[in-house]
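In response to the reviewer comment on reproducibility (Comment 2.3), we provide here a single inverse folding case reported in full, input and output, so that an independent group could reproduce the run without further information from us. The structure tokens appear first.
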């Protein structure tokens, strides 16, 4: 926030200086810690696909979302670093790019990791005028383009989710089936509550009532706007569930957990 817009009594100088009396530090702390845990786990998970004949990213009809869609390389070139020989490499750029340029992500990233500022009406780490998405941060404009692979991924993850109900002996329901069908639902709620998607369906129109298609777009825009109100919630719950889905498949594939078959 630009300091010139603050009431006099809330003007601050110096990192963390504020007249606020509430627990403003709580939000940057939990979001920073939560995201750091996810980054560490997902990096470790992506770089540890398991042995070639017994991968940890799939078990029966289950496939970890970190590795979907599955691109298998028959023989990596010798010069390719061993640590990067993982199918997740071909997949994770899309969801990570989508999340790392998300409008909500920017808010908590600036607050938590750049302390710029750490909260509304709280002194920031650097004293300068906000310059928007310029300079280094210009890559954030790619968000509207990352939306397309993100939507494609929703479809692929739904396919995986449905496939998780079809075992070698036919249709069935395992705990993993439920984990893997809840996951694309949450990812879809996150993806379709995106500000760029909202603009895609209802933006760039001067008149909503002028034609049938504009009226239809207005209806969809209204629904997306409802979802958009809780975009932060969908961001976190889908992020956590994706990590848990990979963890569940990994535990079952490693034989540490037994997949309980409900049906
Ligand atoms: S995914 Fe958050 S604004 Fe697009």
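Designed residues, in position order:
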């Amino acid at each position: 926030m630009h300091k010139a817009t603050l009431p006099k009594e809330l003007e601050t100088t110096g990192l963390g200086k504020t007249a606020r009396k509430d627990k403003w530090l709580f939000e940057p702390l939990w979001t920073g810690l939560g995201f750091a845990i996810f980054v560490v786990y997902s990096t470790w998970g992506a770089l540890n696909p398991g042995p070639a004949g017994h991968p940890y990213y799939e078990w029966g009809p289950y496939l970890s979302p970190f590795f979907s869609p599955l691109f298998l390389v028959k023989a990596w070139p010798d010069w390719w670093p061993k640590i990067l020989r993982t199918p997740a490499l071909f997949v994770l750029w899309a969801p990570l790019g989508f999340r790392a340029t998300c409008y909500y992500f920017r808010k908590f990233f600036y607050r938590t990791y750049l302390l710029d500022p750490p909260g509304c009406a709280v002194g920031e780490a650097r004293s300068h005028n906000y310059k928007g998405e310029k300079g280094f941060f210009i890559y954030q404009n790619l968000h509207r383009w990352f939306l397309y692979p993100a939507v494609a991924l929703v479809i692929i993850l739904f396919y995986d989710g449905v496939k998780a109900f079809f075992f070698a002996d036919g249709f069935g329901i395992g705990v993993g089936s439920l984990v893997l069908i809840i996951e694309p639902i949450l990812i879809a709620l996150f993806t379709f509550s995106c500000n760029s998607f909202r603009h895609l369906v209802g933006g760039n129109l001067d008149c909503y009532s002028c034609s049938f298609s504009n009226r239809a777009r207005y209806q969809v825009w209204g629904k997306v706007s409802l979802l958009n109100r809780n975009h932060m919630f969908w961001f976190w719950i889908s992020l956590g569930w994706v990590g848990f889905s990979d963890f569940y498949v990994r535990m079952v594939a490693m034989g540490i957990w037994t997949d309980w078959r409900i049906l």
